Amino acid sequence: MSDFSRRKFLKTGAAALAGITIAPSSILGMSHGHVSPTDKLNLVAVGIGGMGHANINNVKGTENIVALCDVDWKYAKGVFDEFPNAKKYWDYRKMYDEMGKSIDGVIIATADHTHAIITADAMTMGKHVYCQKPLTHSVYESRLLTKLAASTGVVTQMGNQGASGEGTDLVCEWIWNGEIGEVTKVECATDRPIWPQGLNA
Fold it and tell me: Of 144, 138, 152, 73, whose CA–CA distance to 106 is shortest?
């Protein structure tokens, strides 16, 4: 007859379970493309139409989108519909108040003049931030966010795809290395509307 008591069984089982919960992610399949739900970030987004939607699309496959905020729900309807389980907000301050303890980071793609304050509020809460350009509109705002980044230790990034993309880097390298000869003229074109909106270039 075994001397293995119920107490000993539970103690051994608890130890084994603890070992599973701290196992390396490679054992749980991350090295094969599987990410455990507990390894995903809980993200919220403020300003979800246009560029905000593009930013969300870049992380929706790897992270949890838990809340969305936009002042124009008609414009944002398609994004709201795409994430039916995400909480919906008009006011980012209410979203921060209600979701602050359960989120890891914030994506910000609102109107330009609102970037700094929404970013500062998120950083003050200790949340990581990805914010579209321009990050600030004044030297004061830039210094404020720099100090907040240093004091909070959060990870921040500004969306500067236009200046940091591979194509831009490649053209710069060609010019710097003289690979296309001396550049005497540059012509640019765009398919985007110019200001005021609706007029074509």
Answer: 152
